[in-house]
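Friendly challenge for the regulars: who can give me the structure tokens for this chain first? No prize, just bragging rights.
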Amino acid sequence: MNTLLALDTATEACSAALLHQGRVLHRFEVIPRMHAVRLLPMIEELLDEAGIKMRDIDALVFGRGPGAFTGVRIATGMVQGLAFALNKPVIDISNLAALAQRAAREHQAENVCAAIDARMDEVYWGCYQLRAGVMHLVGEECVSAPEKVTLARGMGLPEGAGTGWQYAERLGVRVERSWPQMLPDARDLLTLAAPRWASGDVLDAADAQPVYLRDKVATPRSVG
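First reply, four minutes later:
Bragging rights claimed.
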């Protein structure tokens, strides 16, 4: 069995999750501006709980964004440094996809419009559909004013996940229900990373980069 370590710091939440011998161990804390302090201790706690060493990890997974600029850089930098040191591959996962996957895990959602508050009166957003237990992007991930959020073609009646849904009255999409307090969780990064790992769709450490939709450097993937 493979061992994967996932890290996410793109929002107010700081989380880490470890898949080892088919079991998922995790840590999740909402600690704004404390991610850099807490992330490494979280990793050490998970390794101790699993009874393994860092060298036993097969691949590193991280939330690549979109999200807070500094937060996204923390997880990216940590994963990149570990991957270089251990000579391990990396899997990058969208934080919007992670939100959609969490909605599926906790609420059995199948069509999700994920949105994260991007500040400056904008939201990061994307539409996802559940297929074979994994959320897949429909269309593209975008950043825009809340009024410009639109439903991707082929989507059924969606549900809303993420802090962008605090602007529900302004969003251009109507949903059956929404969870505006929902934040990405590293456990869901593991679920999204599983098919990537199985197919060999991984990155070298040097290619582990954050995604900032505002800077137009996002390259949408069908998964994560």
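Residues 216-224 have pLDDT under 50 and may be disordered. The CA atoms of residues 39 and 174 lie 36 Å apart. Your move, everyone else.
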